[in-house]
Amino acid sequence: MRRNRLFALAILVMVSALQPARSFGQDTSDKETYDGEALCQNRRGVYPRAIYTPDPEYDDKARKKKIEGTVTLSVIVTKEGRTADIKVVKTLTPGLDQQAMKAVSRWKFEPATQDGQLCPMHINVQVQFKLY
């Protein structure tokens, strides 16, 4: 039984390692699109820059349990500088994940540009939860 658990864990680790890591500013696949438009490859452009980032609210359950940490979200920054297609990449708790998504949906960016043209771009953002 223990051997099967270790084998399953090893497979999970290998599958995770095969998926390409994405972080802020990394190139995306040529096949990815948003609203029918190709995402920025941005080899010689300007990356999105956050200009308005309101803090998330704490989830009541997480506050009572004194949970702190970071939620990582996958986001598309549109040509208008808004966020779209928000997905959780690294979770903390379901309540804090929802609060992070809610906060990031209100964030504003200076959009990415490529060859002088505004374009949507895929990035990952981190939302910190810290009790003071």
Overview of this protein structure:
The protein has helices at residues 2-18, 60-64, 94-104; strands spanning 33-34, 37-38, 49-52, 69-77, 83-90, 108-110, 112-114, 117-119, 121-129. It has a single domain, classed as TolA/TonB C-terminal domain (2-Layer Sandwich), CATH 3.30.2420. The protein is built from 3 helices and 9 strands. The protein is elongated and about 50 Å long. With 132 residues, the chain is of the alpha+beta class. It is 25% helix and 33% strand. The strands form 4 sheets. Strands 5-4-9 form a 3-stranded antiparallel beta sheet, with helices on one face. Strand 1 and strand 2 form a beta hairpin.
- CATH structural class: Alpha Beta
The overall strand count is 9
How many distinct domains? 1
Poorly predicted regions are: 1-30
CATH architecture: 2-Layer Sandwich
CATH homologous superfamily placement:
TonB
Query: What order do the strands of the largest sheet run in, or round the barrel if closed?
Result: 5-4-9
Secondary-structure-based class equals alpha+beta
Strand content: 25-35%
Helical proportion, percent range: 25-40%
Tag the structure with descriptive keywords.
disordered N terminus; single chain; 132 residues; two-stranded antiparallel sheet; elongated; 25% helix; 33% strand; TolA/TonB C-terminal domain
